[in-house]
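Section 5: illustrative case.
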């Protein structure tokens, strides 16, 4: 299926065509699972599994995105961002629970320490990535697709209609900026 055909299916699904929704989901499911697996590898404290993250992201997109999709890459960009937001929201809840949430704290010999550190790290990275997006949206998108979405540089280049060299350059710029922003971060 071509990118244009997938975009058409997704747009029809968005306007209430149940058959188009089912067909589109069947066609993109494996790609969404790959993105979700990459997200979860980077966020071991997440309470969702790959399938759960895919379904939550798809439901979030279906419920909250009302615009027209321009192409396949637009959809996968939205999907990667939705997954990132779901995991960031989970990290925020985990940190809020850690700070009390109305329940007396307990520690099972430090079992949750590493997971809590990952949740804090996720929030700091998310904030730094938001600042990067305000400075250089394309570089932030490269980070989101590569780091959060698990896309290779070659795949990103193809989806964004850029050369792989440009994508790698954006990645290097983003890493330098984020590294400087995250300098001194400790959990």
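Designed sequence:
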């Amino acid at each position: 299926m071509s990118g244009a055909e997938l975009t058409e299916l997704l747009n029809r699904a968005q306007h209430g065509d149940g058959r188009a929704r089912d067909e589109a989901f069947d066609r993109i499911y494996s790609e969404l699972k790959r993105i979700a697996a990459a997200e979860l590898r980077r966020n071991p404290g997440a309470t969702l599994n790959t399938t759960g993250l895919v379904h939550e992201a798809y439901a979030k997109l279906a419920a909250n995105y009302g615009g027209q999709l321009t192409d396949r890459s637009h959809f996968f960009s939205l999907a990667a961002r939705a997954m990132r937001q779901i995991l960031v929201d989970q990290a925020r809840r985990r940190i809020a629970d850690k700070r009390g949430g109305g329940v007396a704290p307990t520690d099972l010999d430090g079992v949750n320490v590493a997971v809590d550190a990952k949740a804090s790290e996720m929030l700091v990275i998310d904030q730094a990535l938001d600042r990067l997006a305000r400075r250089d949206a394309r570089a932030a998108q490269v980070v989101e697709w590569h780091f959060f979405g698990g896309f290779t540089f070659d795949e990103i280049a193809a989806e964004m209609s850029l050369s792989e060299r440009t994508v790698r350059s954006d990645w290097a710029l983003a890493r330098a900026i984020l590294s400087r922003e995250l300098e001194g971060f400790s959990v």
